[in-house]
Amino acid sequence: MGCEEKEREGEEEMILDDEVFAVLMAVVVVACVFSIAQMIPRNVEPFVAIGTLNEEGKLGDYPRVVVAGEPVRLQVFISNHEGKASMLRVMAKLGSKGNIPTNATFLNSSPIWDYIVVLDHGENVTVPVSLTLNEEGSDVAIVFELWEFNTSSRSWVYTGRWNHLYVNVTRQGVVHG
Fold first, then answer.
1. In the predicted model, is pLDDT for residue 37 greater than 60?
2. 86 plus 119 within the same structural domain
3. Does one domain contain both 71 and 115?
């Protein structure tokens, strides 16, 4: 092997070493950027959630027609992501088309069902609900409002979270679809 061949072989090893070094540096840079991104504190918006489920605990397939005086069976899902334990309250109320809560105002109606629970951060609960509607009507809104207990003011505060379900309430023996 001549001098020129050894020189060329040394250059090839050097080029290979430079390429390996460049790839390793790129991997190190990417790993560092990823690690730093994971350490940056994120502002997670605390929230509570409510959901209305059918009798089997699933979304959809809700009753559309109910008979006055007979129970309507549903379930309510409640979840806490406030970053702390929270005392939550769900109130069921009756409304109508155009008379339901908003994100800022609760329904000005007496509750027909009430449930209070304390949930730690990340916890949730699904609660069976049985309501009896006694008066006939069309497009009756069954409203579930979520409230949270404010320990500073020692009072319940409307969270702006609610669900509603429209049903037609008929008298016994008369069922309309």
1. yes
2. yes
3. yes
